[in-house]
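Box 3.1 A note on notation
Throughout this textbook, protein chains are presented in two layers. The first layer is the amino acid sequence; the second is a token string describing backbone geometry. Keep the layers aligned when reading.
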Amino acid sequence: MTISLKGTLVLIGAGKMGGAMLEGWLKAGVDPRQVVALDPSPPPEVAALLKGKGIRHNPALSDIKDAEVLLAAVKPQVMEDVLMPLRGLGASKPLVLSIAAGKTIASFERHFGSDAAVIRTIPNTPAAVGRGITAMAANRNVSPAQMDLAEQLLRSIGEVVRVDDESLIDAATAVSGSGPAYVFYLTECLAAAAEAVGLPPDVAVKLARATVAGSGELMRSSGIDAATLRQNVTSPKGTTYEALKVLMADDGLKPLMIEAIKAAARRSKELAS
């Protein structure tokens, strides 16, 4: 994948997620001279990358005259304060691409105008190791070419899916945005259950972590759907079969997960601004 830019890519916030994306862009052939990073205090490793690649860091805003993409990667609670002085960058009609949870398309239109091209996304934390997935939704002003460019930029941290309705970002937040926490908690529960049947704590944790990580990698690399993989390891009347009778009962894991996802989606809607 090669990313081709005509103007300047402005990275607003060069923290862990922004830094991970920047690394991906450079690997995909983005010219460092076409990138500007705006961040008062990036992590040391990102600061070293900026310096090593000769990327412009916190230049005068008046020097940025050809912004093609503004990628907002700052925390939602400081977004309004950060964007306020950057409104002038909208003069070149850039694509505004947000990876901040809870910030609606309308919130960016308030800063850059109702005619601004805005894409709202929700990546997840595995993006830090290039294994994330990002859902994105666009307003009516985004052109097909801008959608394609956004997808290319986001692929630097993993897979990308498009949703037609911005309201579905709340559902995506509940599933993939918050999802890593569910998997981590499943790992905790698996380790606790291992201890309950007599395994030493260190062995229980090691077995749980490796099992969850390995199963995820098998699902990713094989391309086989989860149901088939489950069936493949379930012998009739065997140990896995007995455990799944508990997990797949009417009051088992599925209805509990549905309620959890609904709760997260409701909260995402409440937090949107």
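Strands lie at 8-12, 35-38, 56-57, 67-72, 95-98, 117-122, 132-138, 158-162. The longest strand covers residues 132-138.
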